Structures are given as C-alpha cells and as structure tokens.
C-alpha cells in the first residue's frame, strides 16, 4: 500500500501586525500553520525577520569580537544605528541600558532624545527596549513614545507591573507593544487579556523572555511552541500574536561567548536557529555575522 | 459525595496558635461549623507535629470529640502522632494518609490494619509525583497490593491521585485532565476501592475571590467521573449545594462542557457563563490564566 504522509490543517491564525512606517514597514505573523510545517495546509506569508541590536551607551563588558563590527561608532548611538542598518537587517533594536537604575539611571528625557535621533536616522523599523525595571520603564517608555510619536515603534517591555502606566500612552502615539512575561504561559495569557481591555490585539507582540542555549533556553523554546499551538491549533485569541525572541544580549552574556569569537557566533547562531524552529517571528541578534549565518542556513532573506 | 471538612489545618494561623496554646475554642468552633455545614468527616491536619506529638494529638482529638460526633480524619505525616490520634478516636477514623513511599508503607499502612480503620492512600512514590495517568496507575497498583498483603481490603482504601494547582505554569491543566481520567478508570483498576482528593489544592495560587469557583467546578467534574469523597472547604455554602446536586442547572452546564455539547452562551447569565468558562479551563479547552473569566 502506498504511504501517504498525513497533512494537517489548522483553524487558528496568528495576527498579522505591522511595525514601522512607509516602504520599510514590516509585517509580522499572519501564519495559519505551525512553524516549518511547510508540508501542512496553510501559509506563512511573512517569513521571520531579524533585527540587529545597539545600546544607548558604550558597553563596557562586551568581548572585543562583539564590539568589532561597531568599533568606530560604538560611542555614538546614531552612528551605531546607521552602521547596524548598513549590515542589512529588517529592523534595528535600541536598548536603553543606560536608563537602568543599577547602570547609569539616566533620565527619561535623555532616553527620549536618543530614541528620537536614532529613529530619524534610520529607514527601517525601530524596536526599543527599556531596561526592564518596571518602575523606571513606566517613566522612560511614555517619554520615548511621545518623542517618537507616529513612528510605530515596537516598544517594550510592557510588564504586568507597569502596563497600566505605559500601554495606553504608547498606543496613543501609534506604537506597537511588546508584552513581556516571565517564561510562563498562564501569566503571558493573563497580560494579554488585561491589555485586550483597551488595546487592539493587532498591536501586541509577545515576548516570552528568551534565554541563551544552555542557560534555560529550553523553557522559552517549549513555551514558544505552546503559544503557537494554543493560537494555531486551539484558536486561543490571547496567544495569536507574533513572537519576538530577544536573544542576542542573552547569548553574549554567556561564558562561551566571552571565551572566543567562534564560540560566540555559534552560540548566538544556534540559539537563533532554534528559536526559528519554535516559531519566533522576529529575532533580535547582536552580531552581523549571525544575521548572515542564519539567513544563509534558512534561506530566509530580506523581504 | 462524602465531604471531609478541611478547615482545621495548621497552615491557618488561628488553628496553629490554638493548637500551640491548647485553646479549644477555635478548634471546637470550626468543628461545629463544619458539622453544621454538612461535613461527613472532620479532618484534623496537624502537619508534621514535631513537638509532643502524642499529647497534642490526644488533646485535639478529645477537643473535637467533645463537640461533634462525626468520624475524624487524622491528617499528619508523623506516624507517632498518627497512632496516638487513631487510638484516641471513638468512632472509626480515617487515616490520612499513606502513600507508595517506602517509609509510608512501612510506618503508616500497618497502622490502618492495627486500628482497623479506613486509609487514604496516595499515588506519591519514592521519586515524587507520578507525571501522568500511566505512572499514577502503576504507583497505586503497587501500594494497594502492598496494603492487601497486610490484610487491608480494597473497601477500606481511599485512593488519592493528588490534586495540583491548575495555575501551575502550563502543567496544572495537564494534571487536572490526568486526574479526571484517573478517577474515571479507577473502579476498573481496583474494584471496591473508594477515592478522595484534596480538592482545594486545585485553586491554590489562583486569585482568592475566584478559588471557590474553581473548587466547585472541579468537584462537580470529579464527582461525575465517580469521585467518592473530597477533603474540601465545606464552609463554602455554594460548594456544598453544588456537589449535593442542589443546583442542577449549574451541574448540567458543567456536564455539557465535559461532554463537549454545544452551549449557547448568549442565553446564559453572568454566573452561568463563569461556570462554563471555568469548566472549559478544567478540561483544557481554554488555556488557564488568572484572568480566565475576563476573556
């Protein structure tokens, strides 16, 4: 008897969301099948996207092979952002590390100014992450939202502890939200339910909190799988948002990345590749070689 | 369903203080309140009972027996306290609990034979909590066989599959489904055994005001699948009414969810919708979150 591979079809669909403005705006999500299940019914209209990360201050603890691609521009966020864009990512991600109370505790106004300059200097969409200090971000992110009004940033992290102070302002200025919860599907859903009371569901991207390979990676991996399954197979509206894997900074913190360049690139590359398998829709990486490596392996090129 | 009142529990600070001070009032009030609320047994959960286990146990059993005639469920992991408690009971007590742990089989189970009482036997094994239905089954078969060999008949054994919180990151709903299935197949596995659960644990960690709803719905579902008894919050009047079958419109709705029957939500009241949503969480149809009633 002839073997026929089973072909599944799925009732749910991941919401299509747009970040950025104009020609370079990106569409994320929109798929109605599981990641890499190209043998099943359904489509994956928007292949995963990649962002390169920069900081709002000169980093002190990056190994030299992490700094190398940006060494001429690393003390100037605007030049750094342009440099990132030159490497050809789909988006650029600005991390407001200096605002962290345990780093420089720099004021919200300064962060807003940096954010605005960076956003205006590049053509591709901009992702902005605060320091993930809930109270400080509640001051910083609204200022950033206002300064970049109308640019449709992908802005976060919006947390359970500060969504009431941040989300509405961000929406009023036309941005898209990164809803972040600590590696827990129940908390992730709860935050989306709370946001849904006033936020359109196509203005949310889920950040399940990523970790690097060997450092709790598998928790995020299986959580991403479950988010996709809940959304696509079980039609759970509150998990039908695109996923962001913010993995670069996690990978470059590891001992392996700090030991030598080859290891660093492999670590970031394999972590990114694995998150693609789990269903991440947009990935934030740090090194341009990782970007090229992953695009080379997967054939996912600039769209 | 046989209801075992859970309120005399040393995790409650008032109870803990009363036990330490040997103050009968708090304990007796709780015993009487639970008896009046419809409890069939009163559970006396004294925890590990490290200090003066025998004297304390005699005191608490005596204190409760002064005011209620109900049989008692002696709930401690300390075998010395357990034996003292069983000895002090006037009626036929329930030993709560033994398990498939080696230590428990050696020290607890023989007490059930010695004092000719009913015994709660849980699926917990030396390695901990069995992860799925199959492992729960093999664990319980082992320990029940051991009990039978000691001369304890199936009819005296109350099997406990161990209820875990529904809110446990991703895993809670899987365990809830596993336990519903376990209770359903139990009579075929071990004819004659009874069953019980620590029901309120299902809502541990959930928002306080929503805990009764979770307890009620899961209680009804387990009952439909054949659950014999539950250690539960009998002071929750709605819970007692629902599991006593006094709210057929609610039980019918929960049954419909279990049987995957179509429900016209638009025809339901807010309260009825809440029961339906909760039942859908319990069977894993909707993903749990603390805001499960709001979406």
Tell me the span between the first and last alpha carbons of chain B.
32 Å
Shape of chain A: globular
Order of strands in the sheet with the most strands of chain B?
7-6-5-4-3-2-1-8
Low-pLDDT ranges of chain B = none
The H-and-E topology of chain A, N to C, reads as: EEEHHEHEHEHEHEHEHHHEH
- Strands ordered across the widest β-sheet of chain A: 8-7-6-5-4-3-10-9
Oligomer: heterodimer
Count of helices of chain B? 12
Span of the ends, CA to CA of chain A: 42 Å
Beta fraction of the residues of chain B? Answer: 5-15%
Q: What is the radius of gyration of chain B computed over CA atoms, rounded to a whole number of angstroms? A: 19 Å
Compute the gyration radius of chain A: what is it? 18 Å
Helix content of chain A: 25-40%
Describe the structure.
The complex is a heterodimer of chains A (303) and B (295). Chain A contains eleven helices and ten strands. Chain A has 303 residues and is of the alpha/beta class. Chain A has an eight-stranded parallel sheet with strand order 8-7-6-5-4-3-10-9. Chain A has a two-stranded antiparallel ribbon with strand order 1-2. The mean pLDDT of chain A is 95. Chain B is globular and about 60 Å long. In chain B, helix 7 (133-149) links the parallel strand 5 (118-125) and strand 6 (157-160). In chain B, 47% of the residues lie in helices and 14% in strands. In chain B, strands 7-6-5-4-3-2-1-8 form an eight-stranded parallel sheet. The interface between A and B is medium-sized, with 20 and 13 residues.
